[in-house]
């Protein structure tokens, strides 16, 4: 009886009796969720255009952030380093299209997926060779990102907002909105959606798959760079960040592999859900559930709606 109380009643009692702390938990989960959604967008962009689940998106986040920190350490001003890193992401996009995607066109999806795994370990080796394996500090202030925190009196207590978290949430929301506009309102965006619907039909009307692939990998690279900066500013820049980036996998499972709104909703569900689970139910199992709870949520969701909240149900006639 006591166990049932601790699992099903006590956490909600804590939420009601300490609403200011519960609001703090919600805010931290919201910030994490928005950043998860931003990472998931990189997966969604590439999958929509090529049908490939890009396993390398996580290491792209790390490689972009390490490149920025490494250039700054060489004496390059941070803002100029950021622009150079955008160029690095473009070179990476062109290289992936020329050396990975173009030779493997019309191959089964599993072949392309395995190629992105190979790309992952290539970038890990290249990153360790150039930057070393030790954690590095993000150049937050040089990038004109805010530091410090502000406390608000609320609900009989106080809510502490880290300025970098506010900036991360705002920047992520702006990028999500910009990508949504890009997909729905621009000529290139319509071409991307055409490629996503049918590669052969897109080719028949003169859309270049090679150009589209460069564009989406470049867009995913920019997303990776911004994500790396935001996560790096909240912690250290290290190869451990790719573990955080893999939280995008349960996000796209919840939202759907081809849906930008799904990435947003899925990110918020995972971010807030794992934070609430860690704080209120984590102590019951010794803590540390934040690392794996997102995958349990995604697994449970798969049993109910395998295609995700906004994914397309695929019907095959036999």
List the helices and strands and how they pair.
Blueprint lengths: L1 H7 L1 H8 L1 H32 L6 H17 L4 H24 L7 H23 L17 E6 L2 E6 H23 L1 H11 L1 H6 L4 H26 L6 H5 L2 H8 L4 H22 L11 H12 L14
Antiparallel strand pairs: 1-2
Helix pairs in contact: 3-7, 3-8, 3-10, 3-12, 3-13, 4-5, 4-6, 4-10, 5-10, 7-8, 7-10, 12-13, 12-14, 13-14
Keywords:
318 residues; mainly alpha; two-stranded antiparallel sheet; 2 strands; 70% helix; globular
Structure commentary:
The chain crosses the membrane at residues 25-47, 59-90, 110-131, 166-183, 212-233, 239-272, 284-304. It is a multi-pass membrane protein. Its main location: membrane. It comes from Amorphus orientalis. Strand 1 and strand 2 (157-162) form a beta hairpin. The mean pLDDT is 83. The longest helix is centred in the first third of the chain and has 32 residues, at 19-50. With 318 residues, this protein is mainly α. It is built from 14 helices and 2 strands; from the N terminus they run ααααααββαααααααα. The protein has a domain at 34-246. Strands 1-2 form a two-stranded antiparallel sheet.
Beta-strand fraction estimate: under 5%
How many E strands?
A: 2
**What class would the helix/strand composition place it in?**
mainly alpha
Order of helices and strands: HHHHHHEEHHHHHHHH
Rg result: 21 Å
**Oligomeric state of the chains in view:** single chain
């Amino acid at each position: 009886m006591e166990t049932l109380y601790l699992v099903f009643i006590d956490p909600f009692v804590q939420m009601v009796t300490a609403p200011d702390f519960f609001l703090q938990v919600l805010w931290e989960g919201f910030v994490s969720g928005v950043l998860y959604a931003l990472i998931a967008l990189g997966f969604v962009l590439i999958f929509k255009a090529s049908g490939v689940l890009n396993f390398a998106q996580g290491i792209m986040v790390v490689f972009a952030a390490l490149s920025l920190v490494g250039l700054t350490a060489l004496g390059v001003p941070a803002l100029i380093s950021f622009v150079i890193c955008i160029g690095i992401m473009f070179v990476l996009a062109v290289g992936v299209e020329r050396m990975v995607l173009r030779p493997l066109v019309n191959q089964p999806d599993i072949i392309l997926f395995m190629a992105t795994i190979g790309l992952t370990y290539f970038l890990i080796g290249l990153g360790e060779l150039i930057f070393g394996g030790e954690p590095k500090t993000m150049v937050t202030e040089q990038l004109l990102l805010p530091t410090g925190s502000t406390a608000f009196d609320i609900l009989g207590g106080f809510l502490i907002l880290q300025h970098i978290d506010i900036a991360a949430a705002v920047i992520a929301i702006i990028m999500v909105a910009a990508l949504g506009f890009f997909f729905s309102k621009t000529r290139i965006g319509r071409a991307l959606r055409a490629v996503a619907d049918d590669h052969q039909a897109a080719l028949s009307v003169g859309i270049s798959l090679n150009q589209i692939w460069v564009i989406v990998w470049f867009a995913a690279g920019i997303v990776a760079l911004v994500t790396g900066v935001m996560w790096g500013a909240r912690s250290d820049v290290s190869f451990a960040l790719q573990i955080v980036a893999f939280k995008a996998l349960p996000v796209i499972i919840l939202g759907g592999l081809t849906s930008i709104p799904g990435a947003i909703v899925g990110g918020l569900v995972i971010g807030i859900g794992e934070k609430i689970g860690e704080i209120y139910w984590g102590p019951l199992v010794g803590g540390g559930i934040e690392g794996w709870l997102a995958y349990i949520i995604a697994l449970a969701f798969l049993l109910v709606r395998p295609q995700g909240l906004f994914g397309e149900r695929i019907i095959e006639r036999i």
